[in-house]
Amino acid sequence: MADQKRLFLLDAFALIFRGYYAFIKNPRINSKGLDTSAILGFTNSLLDVIKRERPDHLAVCFDRGGSVDRVEMFEAYKANRDETPEAIKLAIPYIEEILKAMHIPVIVKEGYEADDIIGTLAKKAEKEGYKTYMVTPDKDFAQLVSENIFMYRPMFGGGYETWGIPEVQKKFEIERPEQVIDFLGMMGDSVDNIPGLPGVGEKTAKKFLAAYGSMEGLLANTHELKGKMKEKIEANKELGLLSKKLARIMLDVPVAFNEKEYELDQPDLQKVTAIFEELEFRRLIDNLIKTFATETPTIGTNSAAAGEQKEKKQAKTDTAGAGQFSLFGATGETSETLKQEFSSRKTIKDTSHLYQSVAPGMAMKLFLQNLMKQTSVCFDTETTGLNPLTAELVGIAFSWEAGKGFYVSFPEDVMETQKILEQLRPFFEAEQIEKIGQNLKYDIKVLRKYNILIKGNYFDTMLAHYLINPDMRHNMEVLAETYLDYTPVSISELIGKKGKNQLSMRQVPLEQQTEYAVEDADITYQLAEHFRPELAAAKTEGLFKDIEIPLLSVLADMELEGINLDTAFLKSLSADLNKDILNLETSIYKAAGEEFNIASPKQLGEILFNKLKLVDKPKKTKTGQFSTAEDVLSYLAKEHAIIRDILDYRGLAKLKSTYVDALPDQVEEKTGRVHTDYMQTVAATGRLSSNNPNLQNIPIRTERGRQVRKAFIPRNEEYTLLAADYSQIELRIIAALSNETTMIDAFKNGEDIHASTASKVFNVPITEVTREQRSNAKTVNFGIIYGVSAFGLSNQTDLSRSESKELIDAYYATYPKLRNYMSELVDFARDNGYVQTVLGRRRYLKDINSRNAVVRGAAERNAVNAPIQGSAADIIKIAMINIHKKLTEGQYKTKMLLQVHDELVFDAHNSELEAVTQLIKTEMENAYILKVPLEVEIDKGANWLEAH
Predict the structure, then answer these.
(1) Looking at the structure, do residues 662 and 519 belong to the same domain, yes or no?
(2) Under a CB-based contact definition with an 8 Å cutoff, are residues 653 and 660 in contact?
(3) Upstream peptide bond of 693 is cis (omega within 30 degrees of 0)
(4) Residue 725, beta-bridge partner list
(5) CA–CA separation, 660 and 662 (whole Å)
(6) What is the number of alpha carbons within 13 Å of residue 343 lying toward its C-beta?
(7) Phi, psi for 405 (deg, rounded to 5)
(8) Among 48, 329, 650, 735, which is most buried by a count of CB atoms within 10 Å?
């Protein structure tokens, strides 16, 4: 029936866990240190369902106390589960509070699982004429599917798939959905600790169901089975029947389906917004408003005048928004208005401020006099675009007192702009005035085009916050809302959304430019004042003033310099790669016996695991298709040529699209060079990241990958590329910090550390170490920092898992102090909640004491890795600062161009080669003194490949 009502029942914990693990590699930590991943993930799923489906009725079902009946049947039911991560435990009260504010019913029954509650309600609703959608990734629910009951499964990567009867039949290869109970009973479930029948996996269970129809049918016909399978099943009949009982979702939970209570109602937008603000969910507030609110009155509401409506809204403290806005869907402009309406944060509209534009003449003169009297000033450039190399100045805002500021606008005429900048030059070059900004590197680069150098001390609020709370986002709007409880004017409010109708900043009226620009400077000034004591409290003031701030200027110079690119060579390389890719395609198709889309994970999975049956139990994704992820295929590459070809194909295709074909398009027209952008605030370890283009991830282990470096060439024939690389810096750092004398001595004696390690762990003289032994020792040397396991080592070498374990054990026996040091790092993290580098850069590890083994294990690996990788990052930053200073002071023509982790690349003038080689080597090797000498290898060449 066309108007059949629809009920959506959400499996709370399944969606909460899914949301939490979706962010496991990049958890969402707010300024209070709360891991909000689970709350964010679940709430996103909830709003997504509402936006996509516009359901009539909806409820969220929770577990409480587990299944009493199942534990009585089988004491070990779910006994093998890891402890629930603390972040999820903390998330539950917030999620319940959000649901309450959204007027969404929470259904929970002590002693019953959410599966059973959902099953009972689905069947009751079906009798009342409803179509019910069970929102869960859990395949067990397939047993409940009927003509009017469906699974609504979140898919990996976004979106949902609906399982009705045909989908369940196809998925499980059965006739009726209720046979899923038999399927689960036969094969068991390791997650829920349902034992199943010994020796019966997915394929065998499907075969038995096709032949016998049910568990009981199988057990009644075991005489038809043969060998050990017959013996096992006959010996475990009772276990099979018990497993089927455990797998069956109960349909008799004492819960009532009261359709009125389940109607999807308008949420209390004010209350929900307040919770989201407390959790620092900026984007989720936008999502909420867009999902629920428009300015259209609902049926039965008098169309009152706008002012009367506003009075009513303000009067409703408990049900603000209810009955005044129709359910679902706000336009962009409406959502922005309503966001401000329901937010408790201050804005420019309700905050006292004095923002003035500075007119030419006397006003400008007085402004400049006042400006030069200050000791600390925040400034912020307004430009025509985001690319500092091409953007033109539209104006500059200044603030040195909260709530006050000035705006100097510039005309389109370049000469006139330069005249105004000359008036401002004394300020920018005043050594005694501290310059405050948010992402100052951008402003430095913009002003450099106008020949304005910014001198004096800097205070960059983005860098300050990165050192205070590295796991948060650092953009100004987030910082203002988090620390000042203030929402700044959005740039989209000023110039519109992206697209052809978006304005240039020049087209915005001066009054609006002034309000917007000076607000940014004012807020940034206030943030700087807020962050100064926090930097001191985190003991990162020295790191801020001595490393990150000086490095900011170094990076600005490197980015402005750029690097020359041989586009003709890349064109020929692209043609060669095309041939290689076509040859690999031919080889893959031949091995597969047919042509298919190699780039399609679904088609590739079907070929490898369904047609060729390369493994007995192939790994599957959350959507049920075969996984062809890199780690899965790498594990199989040793044994199957087709897998090696596929991995090579992927590598070459990515190399071609990401670098060979893309780099020529990223050459800047004005300079004829490629200008990467280095980010200081991305990696929590302190490493720099490179963007637009990313020059740090060009593959170096493959021949074709190395050839890309051949395209990077000197400025002209008077220059040579020079590359300086720290030799095994991370191993040297861990040897020094752990005081591992055996390793320290090897480095001091100039031994090949990998051969030395191999000699010791394999107990052979160093002169008799084989190439394979050295290679395996090298893998362990570098892998140990990242917590390599026997399984991981066997994947990376030709060793079996048992041989890998023996090698790791021998390694730790050889270097006992190293192992003790790693344990000490973990212990320190447990006691203090963080680890730190040699310069005091902190990596906060809030999960280090988690009772969940998986979560705790990841934190423990970070506890070991972060101080080592972070110390290496700190040391090369010191070297960069010192080298840049020497090159500048000595007025060398040689320029530093790139930093790629442990390597620096220079455009060296041929007349300076000998001098700068010695300068660079000295500064890099003496950047930080450890118990182990730092060693730098320097090469030169007509391109980056030759120099590396």
Answers:
(1) no
(2) no
(3) yes
(4) 903, 937
(5) 6
(6) 27
(7) 180, 175
(8) 735
